[in-house]
Amino acid sequence: MRGAQLVGRWVESYTGMSADNIKGLLLALSSSLFIGASFIVKKKGLKKAGAAGVRAGVGGYSYLLEPLWWAGMITMIFGEIANFAAYAFAPAILVTPLGALSIIISAVLAHIMLREKLHIFGILGCILCVVGSTTIVLHAPPERQIESVAEVWDLATEPAFLLYAGIVLAAAFVLIFRFAPQYGQTYIMVYIGICSLVGSLSVMSVKALGIALKLTFSGMNQLVYPQTWVFSFVVVSCIVTQMNYLNKALDTFNTAVVSPIYYTMFTSLTILASVIMFKDWDRQNPTQIVTEMCGFVTILSGTFLLHKTKDMVDGLPPNLPIRLPKHEDEDGYAAEGIPLRSAADGIPLRSPRATDSFRSS
């Protein structure tokens, strides 16, 4: 125990990161590793099952009998658990953008295991994601010290965050009931807007629930507080809404177009919500804030570049129509390509690709 404490102090002194931020960082990195690997394993399972039966892309369920597909699913679940835990230790401004690292894991493994060619500009996109992520990690604010879920509730009920939540809910309801029925199948921003708006609230609730569970496991039972169950209800409601409209977006538009737009909007709104609710930037100077934003823009650049070139072969430009023919897969299999997290796949706090895997299956 003393040796672990010495190592933690050494890392903290040389990186300038708090112990909780280091724990959150390690959990977020492991989550990206598990999530990125899970899509490749699941796709191999889908291809193997499709060779012996009806493919998932045309309504088959033979993959449910394929052990390789289940191995990928279990790997993804471990990744989601790690992602959930990361929010309990580190601020969302650190955890959420790191979801882009799963792109690199998936792209590299797809190149090795699935023989999917990684274009030179795709490699550059991966490098940009790494540089941006490193910049954010080194300048992320320390996690706010919270002693009970009641403190989180007080932060969530302050006027500034109530105003933000009210605007988000009003905009989401207008999109859902006014624009989605008429324009959802035509304009990509309708469905993605709903997912991103609701997703920013879901991450704040996931973080609150994660803090409550962390404190409970440390001996301070937070399950007796009604606020814990309110946050749990919000988490479930938001995730169900996200999954519904993200599936609609993925069923209507090209995934290579949906993924980067969703990642950009979801991550931007999540950072904004975290700054308002947990006041992350109050503990930083302007130089650190600007540097974090530069890191985020660098990640966005790498993400768009990787998705723009992921279907490119040397000498031929990518052909990415925004709208997809109904129920048509890009490769004839369930869509299991490069994932993007935001907070969650399987749980859509992380990635449209994860939800896409559920849709395809």
Automatic annotation (TrEMBL):
Keywords: Cell membrane, Endosome, Ion transport, Magnesium, Membrane, Transmembrane, Transmembrane helix, Transport
Family affiliation: Belongs to the NIPA (TC 2.A.7) family.
Protein name as it appears in the record: Probable magnesium transporter
Presence of the UniProt keyword Acyltransferase in the record: no
InterPro entries: EmrE-like, Mg_trans_NIPA
Top-level taxon: Eukaryota
Subunit structure: Homodimer.
Protein function: Acts as a Mg(2+) transporter. Can also transport other divalent cations such as Fe(2+), Sr(2+), Ba(2+), Mn(2+) and Co(2+) but to a much less extent than Mg(2+).
Membrane-related topology note: Multi-pass membrane protein
Biological process terms in GO annotation: magnesium ion transport
GO molecular function, one term: magnesium ion transmembrane transporter activity
Location, primary (coarse class): membrane
One cellular component (GO) term of this entry: membrane
Pfam families in UniProt: Mg_trans_NIPA
Keyword Amino-acid biosynthesis among record annotations: no
Subcellular location: Cell membrane; Early endosome; Membrane
Record field: transmembrane: 22-41, 61-78, 84-109, 121-141, 161-180, 187-209, 229-246, 253-277, 289-306
Coiled coil: none
